[in-house]
Amino acid sequence: MDYVFYFVVTILTLVFVHELGHFLAAKLMGMRVDVFAIGFGKRLFGWNKISGFSSGNLPEDFDLEGKTDYRISMLPLGGYVKIAGMVDESFDNDFANNEPAPDEFRSKSTIAKLFVISAGVLMNFVLAIIIFSALNFFEGKRIYDTTTVGTTPTSSVAFEAGFRKGDKVISVNNAKVNNWDDVYNLSLIENFGKDLTFVVDRNGEKKTVEIKGKTVTESASKSFFLNIGDTRTAIAQVLENSPAAESGLMDGDEYIAINGTNVSSPQEVFNIIQDNPQTEMTFTMLRGEDTLAIAVTPGVDDKIGVMNTEVYVGNFIYKTYGFVESIAVGFDDGVKNVSTLISFVKMLFTGKADVAESVGGPAKIAKFAKISADAGLTYFLRFIAMLSITLAIMNLLPLPVLDGGHFVIILIEGVIRRELPLKVKIAIQNVGFILLMSFFLFVMYNDIMNW
Question: For 56, which DSSP code?
Fold first, then answer.
């Protein structure tokens, strides 16, 4: 239920903001908006100035008298704004045999049409910039003051590239790094998709590590390929009625040692537990400032019932921003994310990134929404901001049904100074709808296979 809840909150926020952009722009341009819907399919309930609040579908012959019906529909996977005189995903063409009314989409200028169709994307960008700016203003930025590489399991991308635990990154593609933000930005943002050359300090000796850009982008769909150093393994969650819960272990406890053996990664904790099935072990843990010795015996499944994570215990650099500066930095954060996503989309279309590995749907969104929410409000808001930019970029693609597809059609009509035949528009919408549903099914299948 947590996954479902955070997924719904995330999607409804993004959809509402996107559709609000279309709605406000249409109203500003003097267009009649018949429906503002969150969700698709059957109308569950809604409100309009004519009938007030009501549940279920409105009667087929119901006259809104130019007013808008604000509704919540059955499938919370999107939403739409039904603008009078526009061929959209509703496939409504009842207006086709009548002359364009002054308040219809088709009677407006090309500039007005382009503004309305672009407004949803613009609102998604604005939402992201507002979130980034607010986080900068209220919290500033907390930068990990380290360039040390953490655990590198033998099966990891980092290990295969040549990284080893304890390496101190000196430069990325000849650009010097001073902290972990530099390492991340130079690897995943400024050089996104490019081959990377790292110079590292390994026990006082300089080493060069090279990694293909495609390898970095494919691993980025899951996480950054390098683990940060200066960390300690901690318990993220103790499962109820588990050996860990019965022994007194608690969420947030940090591992120091197990049976006298120091541990520094979740994998090391897992290995020691697996090597001592149903055997009482002494866990030396740090709880706040207290060091505790706790006896734990794994269950019959050779598990103790915890979910472990790594927490950074090194130094931080704190940056604070004034009101105006926070907006400028927030805008810069948004631009960097846009640049990265555009590069990523290019790589998808050119085959330089694996679609199955890189693209996710509802399940993946739900998974990352819950993970970010569990990490705290700041992380959840940042996730929404980044997803808002993703939604904007995807909607800009010049494909039928998407805003980018409508944009192209409006441009064509502006150049030829007449509307395309209604049958052509509906055919384009049908093709676009089929392509979109096919892609959606692929994404759903991919989600299930990767869950």
Answer: S
Which distant-in-sequence residues (6+ apart) come within 8 Å of 130 by Cβ? 330
Tell me if 139 sits within 8 A of 382, measured CB to CB.
no
Residue 416, classed as helix, strand or coil, is helix
Residue 327 has pLDDT above 90, yes or no: yes
Question: What distances in angstroms separate CA 25 from CA 22, 81, 121, 172, one per listed residue?
Answer: 5, 11, 12, 44
Using alpha carbons only, give the angle 240, 245, 249 rounded to the nearest 5 degrees: 135
| Burial of 386 per CB tally in 10 Å (0-12, 13-18, 19+) | buried
DSSP state of 123: H
What region, left, alpha or beta, does residue 30 occupy, with left being phi > 0 and alpha being psi -120 to 50 degrees?
A: left
Residue 282, strand partner residues: 295
Torsion of CA 110, 116, 120, 123, to 10 degrees: 110
Helix (H), strand (E), coil (C) string for 192-261: CCCCEEEEEEECCEEEEEEECHHHHHHHHCCCCCCCECCEEEEEEEECCCCHHHHHCCCCCCEEEEECCE
In this prediction, residues 180-201 reach a mean pLDDT of: 91
The stretch 419-440 carries a mean pLDDT of 82
Tens digits of residue pLDDT in 128-148 = 999 999 999 998 988 999 999
* Residues 31-58 pLDDT 10s: 999 999 998 889 999 999 999 999 999 9
For residues 207-235, give the mean pLDDT: 86
Question: What whole-number distance in Å separates Cα of residue 230 and Cα of residue 226?
Answer: 13
Q: Is the pTM of this model over 0.85?
A: no
Strands 290-296 and 306-312, sheet pairing: unpaired
Q: Residue 234 pairs with which residues in a beta bridge? A: 254, 309
Produce one character per residue of 298-315: b if its CB has 16 or more CB atoms within 10 Å, e if not.
beeeebbbbebebebeee
CB 424 within 8 A of CB 416: no
* Alpha-carbon dihedral sign for residues 270, 276, 279, 283: negative
